[in-house]
Amino acid sequence: MALKSAKEYVDSLREMNTRVYMFGERIENWVDHPMIAPSINCVAMTYALAKNPEYEDIMTATSSLTGRKINRFTHLHQSPEDLVKKVKMQRLLGQKTASCFQRCVGMDAFNSVFSTTFEIDEKYGTNYHENFKRFIIHVQDNDLTVDGAMTDPKGDRSKAPHQQADPDMFLHVVERRPDGIVVNGAKCHQTGALNSHWIIFMPTISMGEADRDYAVSFACPADAEEIYMIYGRQSCDTRKLEGCSIDVGNAKFGGQEALVVLDHVFIPNEYIFMNGEYEFAGMMVERFAGYHRQSYGGCKVGVGDTLIGAAALAAEYNGVEKASHIKDKLIEMVHLNETLYSCGIACSCEGCPTKAGNYQIDMLLANVCKQNVTRYPYEIVRLAEDIAGGLMVTMPSQKDFESDTVVGNNGETIGEICDKYFKGKEGVSVKDRQKLLRFIENMCLGAAAVGYRTESLHGAGSPQAQRIMIGRQCDMAAKKELAKRIAGISDEE
Ligand code: SF4
Ligand code: FE
Asked: Which of 87, 248, 310, 366 fits a disulfide with 344 by CB distance 3.0 to 4.6 angstroms?
């Protein structure tokens, strides 16, 4: 099959038996659930744009394995140019959805598992790379969405996997059979898990020999019988159940996270990509994290574009767009946003080939990129709230604006009173102002803030994880040598 359409993607989810729980109950028709559907629309956009000739160059690629045309979200990057196009694709998707569109985690998993399995096989003569190649060709040919699952619950953070009081704090092998393995445990914060056809599981930290059973990677259908998902709720999410689309702020699109539980799942040998080779756990983690830290230099920038645009519009609606401090705040927002983009592009341009042949980002620059993402969106949000004004959090509901209940002495309705007192500049409709301020609220502290704010901090690793990598990658010894040479300091007596 060639590229799937957005409709074909949504229909394919309906055919799955994914077990989903929310508010303590199983959700049978989760595809149409009002709290879940916006996140599906987001992934569907990755299919829709790939079918649009205008975006063909960015959204599609030629498979390095089959020579066939594929969605770039399933591509193994073949050059720095491919890495740059990936970031541009993510910025585009961020601009079109103002949300997390979820499909990148699979793409980042493909590229890290492809290169890591090659190196495991090189050392041990295992067959993981061929397993993975067969799997990725199936993904590319069927244009599948795949979740990349890394984050274990981790329990007591001071302890290694094998030291945990409850062994399930890290996903692990509980049984080895001739035809495969049985795994048990869970993965937390799984972006787009419900909206995926398959899930690639990977270890979450570097491991030692005693953690051998935890050093495991494999692919599994998202609707395998022994897998279930407990939906993560988001700020203001039940507004989506109220039938007031304006109050939602972005009723069409949204992100999604879930707890994915693997309750003694059997994985056949052909889908295993690591099974006990503990010294490669760190390699897989670092590569996946590196790719996903690059990703944030694209997706968050695209989402930032929409927030900056909304802040500029809010200034116009309030009649303050000519004030010099407003102009300066908007320029500051652009400066911060483009700095993030620069990092995403830079770590892509400096990319280099792996032993397996696909391209990897520059690790130092990818970590610098993500470290900046843990900070700048917060300042962009602060400035957006500053420009928008307090009304973005104190405005009455859409139902009030539409109410014909009489409240005034002259027969005015609640709706008429709201229209009168929430008017901005002449010529701007009160409804548009309402929509815009709710959109900003959604981005700054509503459901989309999961993707734009907290995910900027913790997604793809919390700030300290990047600082450790920056410390490792920065080659401080070489810098000291530079200083010594110019200062005339010699190591010789
Ligand atoms: Fe993609 Fe960004 Fe969402 Fe990660 S946070 S899945 S990079 S949109
Ligand atoms: Fe993320």
From this structure: 87
